[in-house]
Amino acid sequence: MCLAIPGEVVEIDALRPDLATVAVSGVRRVINTGLLGDAPPAVGDWVLIHVGFALSKIDEAEAKAVLDFLDGIGQSYQDELAALKASRIE
Amino acid sequence: MRFVDEYRDADKAHALSAKIAGLCEPGREYRFMEVCGGHTHTIYKHGLEDYLPERISLVHGPGCPVCVIPMGRVDDAIHIARQPDVLMTSFGDMMRVPGSGGNFFDSNAEGTNIRMVYSPLDALKLARGNPDLRVVFMGIGFETTAPSTAMTLLRAAAEGLRNFSVFCNHVTIIPAMKAILDSPDLRLDGFLGPGHVSTVIGCRPYEFVARDYGKPVVVSGFEPLDILQSIYLLMLQLAEGRAEVENQYSRVVPPEGNPVALRAIGTVMEPRPYFEWRGLGFISHSALRIKDSYAAFDAERIFDLPGVRVADPKACQCGEVLKGVLKPWECKVFGTACTPETPIGTCMVSPEGACAAYYNFGRFTRQRVKEASGA
Ligand code: SF4
Questions:
Q1: Following DSSP, what letter does each residue of B349-371 receive, concatenated?
Q2: Is the distance from the beta carbon of residue B261 to the nearest atom of ligand 1 less than 6 Å?
Q3: Helices then strands, each counted (H, E), chain B
Q4: B145 touches B173 (CB < 8 A)
Q5: How many beta carbons lie within 10 A of that of residue B95, not counting itself?
């Protein structure tokens, strides 16, 4: 649970603007963007996600670098993705 | 030297390695602590110690929030789970953490319902969907995770959910660093500051380390090059006689942190007078509890907790490992009685724990190689 993983925002919930759908390594899940305050992400932005919340916005190059790092650490990233897949935030 | 072969930026790493070596003063030994378990992971995974002169050693700090939860808190969680109609939820990493009578899996085998969730918001959804169950979320983690718990609790309050509560075990990094700096058996020359915690708290809270203890802090990213770069910045400060807080990870960490996250924590949580850390003992103001105004969501008040202090198992040397006094493999039970499958201490449970990281990746570091060759 210590990992923060990058995801690309693909949709913002029209009724709940603090919820966004992100794509993470081919997985699409809803996360909460409330911690980004008055600078909410737009579709196409990258965010660092930690336990279902966007922690900060990052640029695409940083997202790529973090993904490389995560791919390198193997099992714990796979476990984190599996946990994310089971997540049903609403 | 797997890192050399595998890492795409091997040239840059070599260049940094040479620059670091060039800053070593003759006859001086250097010890830097990486506070964050994510850093420990990268260091072992990429064999980064092989990139450093022998006179620089990296000491692994207490920055894995799973590793510092004492047995008594695991027992308390199981006690809550045993109450009628309780559905207990926690992050997957907690499931294997041993309590005095077994871990969460053992407890489930005896009839409790402790479920893994990815996010506290998943626990909230379970509460909405199961109005006749009392859903408890076991909140663990440093300042990276505490805002998520706080935001979830605020949401539960806004929705008027009556069957959701938080068993709050969030810890804070600054008092732990201070306890380590004050510990007599450890001499450190500087810190690699945690990256993600700092996205929340910013860089200012570390200033006491530079000001009061005269030691440099460099907040660092997680890639191998980030860590080498940060060690270079630490060495440069020492060489120039400076002690400052620097931000190597400024591409992600804003100096002032995340005000929304800090506000969320401050709204629902407050520092505890003291909290027990596994292996480190009681540290004052080192953890968060739910404020009176949110008592209705505080599992500690809803359920009567035994709150018994359980001594760590005798064989366990996690305290020394968490303080960086012992390297993981110097523990008597490392890799024999204590493995990731059957952990005795918590440092072996989470992948960010120093013992687990070393067990999984660390077999080729320079000390190991030397030991193996009998040198
Ligand atoms: S090997 Fe096990 S008991 Fe020893 S310090 Fe590591 S986690 Fe603790």
A1: TSTTSHHHHHHHHGGGSHHHHHH
A2: no
A3: 16, 13
A4: no
A5: 18
**Whole-prediction pTM value?**
0.88
Decide if A2 touches B, using CB distance below 8 A.
yes
- Could you report the predicted ipTM of this complex, rounded to two decimals? 0.90
Residue whose entry in the numeric block shows the structure tokens 């336990």: A51
Say yes or no: domain B1-311 is CATH 3.40.50.11740: yes
What residues contact residue B297 under an 8 Å CB cut-off, 6+ apart? B153, B156, B157, B164, B165, B166, B268, B290
- Helix residue spans in B82-138 (DSSP H): 104-109, 120-129
- Mutation test of the interface with chain A: which of B121, B155, B346, choosing the one with the most A Cβ atoms within 10 A? B121
DSSP B334: B
Q: Of B103, B134, B137, whose CA–CA distance to B119 is shortest?
A: B137
Residue B349 CA: which ligand 1 atom is closest?
7
pLDDT digits (tens, 9 = 90+) for B114-162: 999 999 999 999 999 999 999 999 999 999 999 999 999 999 999 999 9
Task: Give the pLDDT confidence of B46-86 residue by residue, as tens digits.
Answer: 888 888 998 998 888 877 788 888 889 999 999 999 999 99
Q: Does residue B179 have its Cβ closer than 6 Å to ligand 1?
A: no
CA of B343 to the centre of ligand 1 (A): 7
Instruction: Give helix B146-159 / helix B259-268 axis angle, nearest 10°.
Output: 60
The dihedrals phi and psi of A49, each to the nearest 5 degrees, come to: -110, 130
* Domain ranges (residues) in chain B: 1-311, 318-370
